[in-house]
TrEMBL record:
The keyword Metal-binding belongs to this UniProt entry's keyword annotation: no
InterPro entries in the cross-refs: LysR-type_TF, LysR_HTH_N, LysR_subst-bd, WH-like_DNA-bd_sf, WH_DNA-bd_sf, YidZ_PBP2
Pfam short name (any one): HTH_1
Gene Ontology MF term list: DNA binding; DNA-binding transcription factor activity
UniProt domain HTH lysR-type: residue ranges: 9-66
Domain of life: Bacteria
Recorded family membership: Belongs to the LysR transcriptional regulatory family.
Protein's UniProt name: LysR family transcriptional regulator
Entry keyword set: DNA-binding, Transcription, Transcription regulation
Lineage: Bacteria, Pseudomonadati, Pseudomonadota, Gammaproteobacteria, Oceanospirillales
Organism expressing this protein natively: Marinobacterium mangrovicola
UniProt signal peptide: none
Amino acid sequence: MREMNMRSIDLNLLVVLDALLEERQVTGAAQRLDMSQPAVSRALQRLRELFSDPLLVRGEDGYDLSARARHLQPLLKDMLHGVKQMITPLSFDPAGASGNLSFACLDLEATLYLAGIMETLRQEAPGMSLEIQSKPGDYFTSLARGEIHLALSGQEPDFSQDQFHRVEIDYTYSQCVMGADNPLAEGELTLERYLEATHGFVSISGRGPAIIDMHLKQMGYQRKVAARLASFFNVPDFCENTDLVFALPKRQVDWLCRNRRLVSRPLPKEIPQPLIHFYLYWHARYHQDPMHRWFRNLVIEQNRSKFSDSAPFSPQ
């Protein structure tokens, strides 16, 4: 039995074969396919050579199917249906969907940027579940491995950036936060007063100095650090009734100051204050996935309405 070389087969011939077996004549197949009769006749000849069978044979009332053609017809129908399913764009119906969506971000960022998401999911996609991973980690490696669908981060990947897509969710700048009784809560916060104060900072990774410390080192200064925390949520408890000063993204400061005896102040103008950007990241494997596209657009649109005065929301 000779082995068939699949690369030598023109799949377009199988579409013609399907029409020929349905119509049982060249003229009808040509009309159905919007092809010329000579073109269909040439295709039939190639098909007869391919299958080593006449396929259409003369019968009492015109042409009839050969035994091989009768065997091929249901197989051909199934195959063409499968091909059509393969190339038909996927769709997503939230109301009938099921599955788990995994999202990675810090705890306070989940509060700021994902509040309200669960309500929408329960209303529009009740069969979907949401997992939020707030433990600090290497989100980009998790995205690359397919362990999470989306990540919210103020950092940028340090490897294979072409693997990732992103959209800016928000941007802000650093601001000081301290207890209302802190001496620095009154008067101008000069660089001298700032350097004389006692500080705390949040280190998500647990490694290295704070960015402000690196800026101060370049300026030839050093501040006194008495507390290093792993969560933004702990900041109010560590500075409300102490002399500690923290410098955090203003969006986080505004939220942490709610219903607490805290005061926010601008950093001294001498300290560089680059904008802090927060991006929604996802891996290229999910870029065209309908479910993923629906969910990330949900996150984007929700934050567009909340922070329309700040973030440009340009997909990349």
